[in-house]
Amino acid sequence: MLSVLHVDHNFFYKEIIKDIVKKRKIRYLSVPTPQEAFKVLKNNKVDMIMTALEFRDGKGEDFIKALNESSYKDIPIIVLSAKDDMETKKKVFDLGAIDFIHKSRFLDGFKNYIDRFESADFVYEQLKERKIAVLDDNKLELKIIQKIFELNNIRNIDYYTSPNELLNKKEEYCLYLIDFILPTMSGEQVILELRKRYKYALIIAISAMDNQKIISNMLSSGSDDYIIKPFNENVFMARLKANIRTFLLLQELKEKNVALQEMVKIDGLTNLYNHKYVVERLADEIKRAQRYNKKLSIIMFDIDKFKLINDNYGHQFGDTVLREISDELKFIIRGIDIAGRYGGEEFIVILPETDLKNAVKLAERLRIRISNIKFKEKNIKVTISGGVAELEKENVFELIGKSDALLYKAKEKGRNRIEYMN
Questions:
Q1: Rounded CA gap, 338 and 41, in Å?
Q2: What's phi and psi for 343, nearest 5 deg?
Q3: What SS3 class is residue 51?
Q4: Helix (H, G, I), strand (E, B) or coil at 54
Protein backbone atom coordinates (compact mmCIF):
# COMPACT_ATOMS: atom_id res chain seq x y z
CA MET A 1 0.00 0.00 0.00
CA LEU A 2 1.24 3.49 -0.88
CA SER A 3 1.76 5.89 2.02
CA VAL A 4 1.65 9.69 2.25
CA LEU A 5 3.20 11.72 5.04
CA HIS A 6 1.45 15.08 5.54
CA VAL A 7 3.40 17.66 7.56
CA ASP A 8 1.07 20.51 8.54
CA HIS A 9 -0.37 21.97 11.75
CA ASN A 10 -3.52 23.22 9.97
CA PHE A 11 -6.42 20.95 11.04
CA PHE A 12 -8.69 21.97 8.12
CA TYR A 13 -6.28 20.88 5.39
CA LYS A 14 -5.31 17.74 7.27
CA GLU A 15 -8.92 16.56 7.46
CA ILE A 16 -9.61 17.19 3.77
CA ILE A 17 -6.40 15.52 2.57
CA LYS A 18 -6.96 12.63 4.97
CA ASP A 19 -10.42 12.10 3.46
CA ILE A 20 -9.10 12.17 -0.15
CA VAL A 21 -6.30 9.75 0.62
CA LYS A 22 -8.44 7.25 2.53
CA LYS A 23 -10.93 7.02 -0.35
CA ARG A 24 -8.02 5.97 -2.56
CA LYS A 25 -6.91 3.26 -0.11
CA ILE A 26 -3.61 5.04 0.53
CA ARG A 27 -2.06 5.00 4.00
CA TYR A 28 -2.15 8.48 5.54
CA LEU A 29 0.38 9.63 8.12
CA SER A 30 0.11 13.09 9.64
CA VAL A 31 2.33 15.18 11.92
CA PRO A 32 2.21 18.90 12.82
CA THR A 33 5.98 19.63 12.71
CA PRO A 34 9.12 18.78 10.69
CA GLN A 35 10.78 17.40 13.84
CA GLU A 36 8.03 14.83 14.27
CA ALA A 37 8.16 14.06 10.54
CA PHE A 38 11.71 12.73 10.87
CA LYS A 39 10.57 10.41 13.68
CA VAL A 40 7.82 9.00 11.42
CA LEU A 41 10.25 8.59 8.52
CA LYS A 42 12.60 6.63 10.73
CA ASN A 43 9.95 4.01 11.53
CA ASN A 44 7.72 3.96 8.43
CA LYS A 45 7.95 3.45 4.69
CA VAL A 46 6.82 6.71 3.06
CA ASP A 47 6.24 7.11 -0.67
CA MET A 48 5.39 10.82 -0.78
CA ILE A 49 5.68 13.83 1.53
CA MET A 50 3.27 16.77 1.42
CA THR A 51 4.43 19.69 3.54
CA ALA A 52 3.32 23.19 4.41
CA LEU A 53 5.86 26.06 4.36
CA GLU A 54 4.52 27.85 7.42
CA PHE A 55 5.31 26.32 10.83
CA ARG A 56 5.29 27.87 14.31
CA ASP A 57 8.75 26.56 15.19
CA GLY A 58 10.58 26.84 11.85
CA LYS A 59 10.46 27.26 8.09
CA GLY A 60 9.26 24.70 5.65
CA GLU A 61 12.21 25.57 3.39
CA ASP A 62 14.59 24.36 6.11
CA PHE A 63 12.64 21.08 6.35
CA ILE A 64 12.84 20.50 2.56
CA LYS A 65 16.57 21.27 2.61
CA ALA A 66 17.12 18.88 5.54
CA LEU A 67 15.21 16.12 3.74
CA ASN A 68 17.32 16.46 0.62
CA GLU A 69 20.50 16.28 2.67
CA SER A 70 19.33 13.11 4.41
CA SER A 71 18.79 9.47 3.47
CA TYR A 72 15.18 10.42 2.61
CA LYS A 73 16.19 12.63 -0.33
CA ASP A 74 14.60 10.28 -2.90
CA ILE A 75 11.08 10.66 -1.48
CA PRO A 76 9.09 13.10 -3.67
CA ILE A 77 8.12 16.30 -1.84
CA ILE A 78 5.03 18.39 -2.66
CA VAL A 79 4.62 21.83 -1.11
CA LEU A 80 1.19 23.14 -0.05
CA SER A 81 1.32 26.86 0.66
CA ALA A 82 -0.71 30.08 0.85
CA LYS A 83 2.19 31.86 -0.87
CA ASP A 84 2.04 32.13 -4.64
CA ASP A 85 5.00 34.26 -5.68
CA MET A 86 7.64 33.12 -8.17
CA GLU A 87 10.50 33.67 -5.72
CA THR A 88 9.01 31.18 -3.21
CA LYS A 89 8.29 28.64 -5.94
CA LYS A 90 11.80 28.88 -7.37
CA LYS A 91 13.30 28.51 -3.90
CA VAL A 92 11.39 25.33 -2.99
CA PHE A 93 12.08 23.78 -6.41
CA ASP A 94 15.79 24.57 -6.03
CA LEU A 95 15.72 22.92 -2.61
CA GLY A 96 14.30 19.70 -4.10
CA ALA A 97 10.49 19.87 -4.09
CA ILE A 98 8.90 18.34 -7.19
CA ASP A 99 5.59 20.24 -7.11
CA PHE A 100 3.97 23.33 -5.60
CA ILE A 101 0.22 23.61 -4.92
CA HIS A 102 -1.38 26.84 -3.80
CA LYS A 103 -3.90 26.38 -0.99
CA SER A 104 -6.67 28.07 -3.02
CA ARG A 105 -6.30 25.33 -5.66
CA PHE A 106 -5.11 22.50 -3.46
CA LEU A 107 -8.21 20.27 -3.76
CA ASP A 108 -7.97 19.75 -7.53
CA GLY A 109 -4.18 19.96 -7.47
CA PHE A 110 -3.81 17.31 -4.81
CA LYS A 111 -6.37 14.98 -6.42
CA ASN A 112 -4.52 15.25 -9.73
CA TYR A 113 -1.25 14.49 -8.04
CA ILE A 114 -2.70 11.46 -6.24
CA ASP A 115 -3.95 10.22 -9.64
CA ARG A 116 -0.41 10.52 -11.00
CA PHE A 117 0.97 8.96 -7.85
CA GLU A 118 -1.29 5.91 -8.16
CA SER A 119 -0.55 5.67 -11.88
CA ALA A 120 3.18 5.72 -11.18
CA ASP A 121 2.76 2.98 -8.59
CA PHE A 122 0.80 0.87 -11.10
CA VAL A 123 3.55 1.37 -13.69
CA TYR A 124 6.18 0.39 -11.12
CA GLU A 125 4.28 -2.81 -10.31
CA GLN A 126 4.04 -3.58 -14.02
CA LEU A 127 7.78 -3.00 -14.40
CA LYS A 128 8.45 -5.49 -11.61
CA GLU A 129 6.38 -8.15 -13.40
CA ARG A 130 7.85 -7.72 -16.89
CA LYS A 131 10.78 -9.76 -18.18
CA ILE A 132 13.86 -7.59 -18.82
CA ALA A 133 17.06 -8.36 -20.74
CA VAL A 134 20.25 -6.33 -20.25
CA LEU A 135 23.11 -6.62 -22.76
CA ASP A 136 26.46 -5.04 -21.86
CA ASP A 137 29.91 -6.60 -22.29
CA ASN A 138 31.26 -4.47 -19.40
CA LYS A 139 30.72 -6.56 -16.25
CA LEU A 140 31.15 -3.53 -13.99
CA GLU A 141 28.37 -1.68 -15.82
CA LEU A 142 26.18 -4.77 -15.53
CA LYS A 143 26.81 -4.79 -11.77
CA ILE A 144 25.76 -1.14 -11.53
CA ILE A 145 22.51 -1.82 -13.41
CA GLN A 146 21.89 -4.93 -11.32
CA LYS A 147 22.37 -2.90 -8.13
CA ILE A 148 19.86 -0.26 -9.27
CA PHE A 149 17.29 -2.93 -10.02
CA GLU A 150 17.89 -4.69 -6.70
CA LEU A 151 17.47 -1.43 -4.78
CA ASN A 152 14.11 -0.99 -6.52
CA ASN A 153 13.09 -4.61 -5.88
CA ILE A 154 13.05 -5.48 -9.60
CA ARG A 155 14.42 -8.98 -10.07
CA ASN A 156 12.89 -10.50 -13.20
CA ILE A 157 16.00 -9.79 -15.28
CA ASP A 158 18.48 -11.74 -17.40
CA TYR A 159 21.96 -10.28 -17.95
CA TYR A 160 24.04 -10.88 -21.09
CA THR A 161 27.60 -9.95 -22.06
CA SER A 162 27.48 -11.35 -25.61
CA PRO A 163 25.15 -10.23 -28.46
CA ASN A 164 24.97 -13.77 -29.84
CA GLU A 165 24.00 -15.14 -26.44
CA LEU A 166 21.00 -12.80 -26.34
CA LEU A 167 20.02 -13.22 -30.00
CA ASN A 168 20.21 -17.02 -29.78
CA LYS A 169 17.82 -17.00 -26.81
CA LYS A 170 14.35 -18.02 -27.94
CA GLU A 171 12.57 -16.11 -25.18
CA GLU A 172 10.99 -12.73 -25.93
CA TYR A 173 11.42 -9.98 -23.33
CA CYS A 174 9.18 -7.02 -22.66
CA LEU A 175 12.13 -4.64 -22.19
CA TYR A 176 15.65 -4.72 -23.64
CA LEU A 177 18.54 -2.54 -22.43
CA ILE A 178 21.24 -2.69 -25.12
CA ASP A 179 24.73 -1.20 -24.87
CA PHE A 180 25.99 0.64 -27.96
CA ILE A 181 29.58 -0.66 -28.00
CA LEU A 182 29.69 -4.46 -28.03
CA PRO A 183 32.04 -7.22 -29.21
CA THR A 184 31.38 -9.02 -32.56
CA MET A 185 28.56 -6.64 -33.58
CA SER A 186 27.33 -3.15 -32.74
CA GLY A 187 24.43 -2.32 -30.46
CA GLU A 188 22.73 -0.82 -33.52
CA GLN A 189 22.81 -4.19 -35.31
CA VAL A 190 21.43 -5.96 -32.22
CA ILE A 191 18.58 -3.44 -32.00
CA LEU A 192 17.77 -3.82 -35.71
CA GLU A 193 17.57 -7.59 -35.30
CA LEU A 194 15.47 -7.40 -32.12
CA ARG A 195 13.07 -4.92 -33.69
CA LYS A 196 12.70 -7.18 -36.72
CA ARG A 197 11.74 -10.08 -34.44
CA TYR A 198 9.73 -8.27 -31.78
CA LYS A 199 7.66 -5.45 -33.19
CA TYR A 200 6.11 -4.35 -29.89
CA ALA A 201 9.02 -4.90 -27.46
CA LEU A 202 10.52 -1.94 -25.59
CA ILE A 203 14.16 -1.39 -26.59
CA ILE A 204 16.35 1.17 -24.83
CA ALA A 205 19.91 1.91 -25.96
CA ILE A 206 22.49 2.65 -23.25
CA SER A 207 25.92 4.22 -23.76
CA ALA A 208 28.51 6.58 -22.33
CA MET A 209 28.65 8.33 -25.71
CA ASP A 210 26.79 11.64 -25.78
CA ASN A 211 26.94 12.08 -29.54
CA GLN A 212 23.84 13.42 -31.30
CA LYS A 213 24.47 11.45 -34.50
CA ILE A 214 24.87 8.19 -32.56
CA ILE A 215 21.72 8.87 -30.55
CA SER A 216 19.84 9.69 -33.77
CA ASN A 217 21.05 6.46 -35.43
CA MET A 218 20.11 4.32 -32.43
CA LEU A 219 16.60 5.79 -32.31
CA SER A 220 16.25 5.38 -36.09
CA SER A 221 17.34 1.74 -35.77
CA GLY A 222 14.35 0.95 -33.62
CA SER A 223 15.23 1.84 -30.03
CA ASP A 224 12.53 3.64 -28.05
CA ASP A 225 14.91 5.66 -25.89
CA TYR A 226 18.60 6.35 -25.21
CA ILE A 227 20.03 6.57 -21.68
CA ILE A 228 23.52 7.96 -21.13
CA LYS A 229 25.99 6.44 -18.65
CA PRO A 230 26.91 6.88 -15.85
CA PHE A 231 23.40 6.30 -14.59
CA ASN A 232 21.64 8.46 -12.05
CA GLU A 233 19.41 5.95 -10.27
CA ASN A 234 16.36 8.24 -10.06
CA VAL A 235 16.59 9.36 -13.69
CA PHE A 236 17.27 5.80 -14.88
CA MET A 237 14.20 4.43 -13.09
CA ALA A 238 12.05 7.39 -14.16
CA ARG A 239 12.98 6.78 -17.81
CA LEU A 240 12.15 3.08 -17.52
CA LYS A 241 8.79 3.86 -15.91
CA ALA A 242 7.98 6.46 -18.58
CA ASN A 243 8.73 3.93 -21.31
CA ILE A 244 6.72 1.20 -19.60
CA ARG A 245 3.81 3.63 -19.25
CA THR A 246 3.90 4.30 -23.00
CA PHE A 247 4.23 0.56 -23.68
CA LEU A 248 1.15 -0.18 -21.54
CA LEU A 249 -0.88 2.53 -23.27
CA LEU A 250 0.09 1.19 -26.70
CA GLN A 251 -0.71 -2.35 -25.59
CA GLU A 252 -4.13 -1.22 -24.36
CA LEU A 253 -4.72 0.59 -27.67
CA LYS A 254 -3.67 -2.50 -29.63
CA GLU A 255 -6.05 -4.69 -27.61
CA LYS A 256 -8.90 -2.23 -28.17
CA ASN A 257 -8.18 -2.16 -31.90
CA VAL A 258 -8.24 -5.98 -32.02
CA ALA A 259 -11.54 -6.00 -30.11
CA LEU A 260 -12.94 -3.32 -32.43
CA GLN A 261 -11.88 -5.27 -35.52
CA GLU A 262 -13.52 -8.36 -34.06
CA MET A 263 -16.71 -6.43 -33.30
CA VAL A 264 -16.92 -5.30 -36.93
CA LYS A 265 -17.02 -8.99 -37.98
CA ILE A 266 -19.67 -10.07 -35.46
CA ASP A 267 -23.45 -10.05 -35.73
CA GLY A 268 -24.68 -8.26 -32.62
CA LEU A 269 -27.69 -10.49 -31.91
CA THR A 270 -26.25 -13.99 -32.44
CA ASN A 271 -22.52 -13.41 -31.83
CA LEU A 272 -21.86 -15.33 -35.04
CA TYR A 273 -19.90 -13.81 -37.91
CA ASN A 274 -21.88 -11.32 -39.99
CA HIS A 275 -22.79 -11.53 -43.70
CA LYS A 276 -19.86 -9.46 -45.02
CA TYR A 277 -17.19 -11.28 -43.07
CA VAL A 278 -18.49 -14.79 -43.72
CA VAL A 279 -18.59 -14.15 -47.49
CA GLU A 280 -15.00 -12.86 -47.36
CA ARG A 281 -13.92 -15.93 -45.40
CA LEU A 282 -15.65 -18.24 -47.85
CA ALA A 283 -13.71 -16.60 -50.71
CA ASP A 284 -10.45 -17.21 -48.79
CA GLU A 285 -11.36 -20.82 -48.01
CA ILE A 286 -12.23 -21.52 -51.67
CA LYS A 287 -8.82 -20.20 -52.77
CA ARG A 288 -7.08 -22.29 -50.11
CA ALA A 289 -9.01 -25.45 -51.04
CA GLN A 290 -8.21 -24.99 -54.73
CA ARG A 291 -4.53 -24.23 -54.09
CA TYR A 292 -3.94 -27.27 -51.88
CA ASN A 293 -6.51 -29.56 -53.53
CA LYS A 294 -8.56 -29.83 -50.32
CA LYS A 295 -12.26 -30.56 -49.82
CA LEU A 296 -14.64 -27.77 -48.84
CA SER A 297 -18.37 -27.85 -48.12
CA ILE A 298 -20.95 -25.36 -46.90
CA ILE A 299 -24.34 -25.62 -45.20
CA MET A 300 -27.08 -23.04 -45.75
CA PHE A 301 -30.10 -23.32 -43.47
CA ASP A 302 -32.91 -21.21 -42.18
CA ILE A 303 -35.65 -21.44 -39.54
CA ASP A 304 -38.92 -22.90 -40.75
CA LYS A 305 -41.92 -20.53 -40.66
CA PHE A 306 -39.93 -17.89 -38.77
CA LYS A 307 -42.30 -15.10 -39.84
CA LEU A 308 -45.17 -16.92 -38.09
CA ILE A 309 -43.03 -17.18 -34.92
CA ASN A 310 -42.49 -13.41 -34.97
CA ASP A 311 -46.14 -12.70 -35.80
CA ASN A 312 -47.58 -15.05 -33.17
CA TYR A 313 -45.10 -14.65 -30.30
CA GLY A 314 -43.41 -11.31 -30.94
CA HIS A 315 -40.01 -10.23 -32.20
CA GLN A 316 -38.45 -10.51 -28.74
CA PHE A 317 -39.18 -14.24 -28.69
CA GLY A 318 -37.98 -14.44 -32.30
CA ASP A 319 -34.65 -13.01 -31.17
CA THR A 320 -34.52 -15.66 -28.41
CA VAL A 321 -34.98 -18.38 -31.04
CA LEU A 322 -32.15 -16.94 -33.16
CA ARG A 323 -29.82 -16.84 -30.16
CA GLU A 324 -30.66 -20.41 -29.05
CA ILE A 325 -30.05 -21.79 -32.54
CA SER A 326 -26.79 -19.85 -32.78
CA ASP A 327 -25.66 -21.37 -29.47
CA GLU A 328 -26.42 -24.87 -30.74
CA LEU A 329 -24.51 -24.13 -33.93
CA LYS A 330 -21.46 -22.84 -32.03
CA PHE A 331 -21.54 -25.92 -29.81
CA ILE A 332 -21.63 -28.45 -32.65
CA ILE A 333 -19.02 -27.09 -35.09
CA ARG A 334 -15.25 -27.62 -34.97
CA GLY A 335 -12.64 -24.99 -34.22
CA ILE A 336 -11.71 -24.62 -37.90
CA ASP A 337 -15.34 -24.21 -39.06
CA ILE A 338 -16.80 -20.76 -39.69
CA ALA A 339 -20.43 -20.05 -38.76
CA GLY A 340 -22.28 -16.90 -39.71
CA ARG A 341 -25.68 -15.26 -39.84
CA TYR A 342 -26.23 -14.80 -43.55
CA GLY A 343 -29.29 -12.60 -43.11
CA GLY A 344 -32.54 -12.55 -41.14
CA GLU A 345 -33.19 -16.16 -40.08
CA GLU A 346 -30.71 -17.64 -42.58
CA PHE A 347 -27.35 -19.10 -41.52
CA ILE A 348 -24.24 -20.35 -43.28
CA VAL A 349 -21.58 -22.78 -42.07
CA ILE A 350 -18.23 -23.09 -43.88
CA LEU A 351 -16.57 -26.49 -43.39
CA PRO A 352 -12.92 -26.54 -44.51
CA GLU A 353 -11.37 -29.94 -45.38
CA THR A 354 -14.82 -31.58 -45.30
CA ASP A 355 -16.46 -33.62 -48.04
CA LEU A 356 -20.18 -33.73 -48.82
CA LYS A 357 -20.85 -36.92 -46.83
CA ASN A 358 -19.44 -35.52 -43.56
CA ALA A 359 -21.03 -32.11 -44.13
CA VAL A 360 -24.45 -33.77 -44.48
CA LYS A 361 -23.85 -35.72 -41.24
CA LEU A 362 -23.12 -32.47 -39.41
CA ALA A 363 -26.16 -30.76 -40.92
CA GLU A 364 -28.40 -33.65 -39.83
CA ARG A 365 -27.00 -33.58 -36.29
CA LEU A 366 -27.68 -29.86 -36.15
CA ARG A 367 -31.22 -30.28 -37.50
CA ILE A 368 -32.03 -32.93 -34.87
CA ARG A 369 -30.51 -30.91 -31.99
CA ILE A 370 -32.48 -27.82 -32.96
CA SER A 371 -35.75 -29.77 -33.29
CA ASN A 372 -35.20 -31.02 -29.72
CA ILE A 373 -34.87 -27.54 -28.21
CA LYS A 374 -37.85 -26.88 -25.94
CA PHE A 375 -38.88 -23.24 -25.66
CA LYS A 376 -40.76 -23.66 -22.40
CA GLU A 377 -42.06 -20.11 -22.18
CA LYS A 378 -44.03 -20.59 -25.42
CA ASN A 379 -44.26 -24.40 -25.42
CA ILE A 380 -43.26 -24.67 -29.08
CA LYS A 381 -40.68 -26.51 -31.13
CA VAL A 382 -38.58 -24.96 -33.86
CA THR A 383 -37.23 -26.74 -36.95
CA ILE A 384 -34.79 -25.85 -39.70
CA SER A 385 -34.37 -26.68 -43.38
CA GLY A 386 -30.97 -26.75 -45.04
CA GLY A 387 -28.96 -27.35 -48.20
CA VAL A 388 -25.44 -28.82 -48.28
CA ALA A 389 -23.05 -28.27 -51.19
CA GLU A 390 -19.48 -29.40 -51.81
CA LEU A 391 -17.06 -27.18 -53.73
CA GLU A 392 -16.32 -28.29 -57.27
CA LYS A 393 -15.28 -25.39 -59.52
CA GLU A 394 -17.65 -22.71 -58.27
CA ASN A 395 -16.78 -19.19 -57.13
CA VAL A 396 -18.16 -17.78 -53.87
CA PHE A 397 -21.58 -16.75 -55.11
CA GLU A 398 -22.05 -19.83 -57.27
CA LEU A 399 -21.35 -22.08 -54.27
CA ILE A 400 -23.74 -20.08 -52.07
CA GLY A 401 -26.36 -20.18 -54.82
CA LYS A 402 -25.95 -23.96 -55.12
CA SER A 403 -26.56 -24.56 -51.41
CA ASP A 404 -29.35 -21.95 -51.33
CA ALA A 405 -31.19 -23.78 -54.14
CA LEU A 406 -30.94 -26.99 -52.13
CA LEU A 407 -32.30 -25.16 -49.08
CA TYR A 408 -35.40 -24.10 -51.03
CA LYS A 409 -35.77 -27.64 -52.33
CA ALA A 410 -35.94 -28.79 -48.68
CA LYS A 411 -38.68 -26.21 -48.08
CA GLU A 412 -40.67 -27.46 -51.06
CA LYS A 413 -40.42 -31.06 -49.77
CA GLY A 414 -42.12 -30.19 -46.48
CA ARG A 415 -39.40 -28.48 -44.33
CA ASN A 416 -37.46 -29.87 -41.34
CA ARG A 417 -35.05 -31.65 -43.69
CA ILE A 418 -31.56 -31.39 -45.24
CA GLU A 419 -31.12 -31.57 -49.02
CA TYR A 420 -27.87 -32.24 -50.88
CA MET A 421 -26.78 -33.11 -54.42
CA ASN A 422 -25.53 -36.67 -54.94
A1: 63
A2: 160, 135
A3: strand
A4: strand
Rounded CA gap, 190 and 220, in Å?
A: 13
Same domain? 281 vs 319 = yes
Q: What is the pLDDT of residue 118?
A: 65
Domain end marker among 92, 109, 127: 127
What is the spatial distance between Cα 273 and Cα 263, in angstroms, rounded to a whole number? Answer: 9
Catalytic (active-site) positions: 345
Among candidate residues 360, 337, 333, 352, the one with its CA nearest the CA of residue 291: 352
Shared domain for 112 and 134, answered yes or no, is no
- Each residue's pLDDT tens digit, 124-144: 788 888 999 999 999 899 999
Question: At residue 63, does pLDDT exceed 80?
Answer: yes
Whole-number Å distance between alpha carbons of 190 and 163: 7
> Helix 275-292 and helix 233-265: axis angle, to 10°?
90
Closest CA to 299 of 352, 377, 221: 352
- At 228 the three-state DSSP class reads strand
379: domain CATH number is 3.30.70.270
Averaged pLDDT, 261-279:
91
Q: Quote the domain boundaries for residue 36.
A: 3-127
For 300, 303, 320, 321, 332, the CA distances from 375, given in Å and listed in that order, are 23, 14, 9, 8, 19
Task: Report the number of distinct structural domains present in the chain.
Answer: 3
64 in the same domain as 29: yes
pLDDT average, residue stretch 170-199 = 92
326 and 415, same domain (yes or no)? yes
**pLDDT at residue 288 is higher than 70:** yes
Q: What is the pLDDT of residues 2-47, one digit of tens each?
A: 788 999 988 888 888 888 777 777 888 999 999 999 999 999 989 8
Backbone φ/ψ region at 171: left (φ over 0), alpha (ψ -120 to 50), beta: beta
Cα distance between residue 363 and residue 25, in whole Å: 57
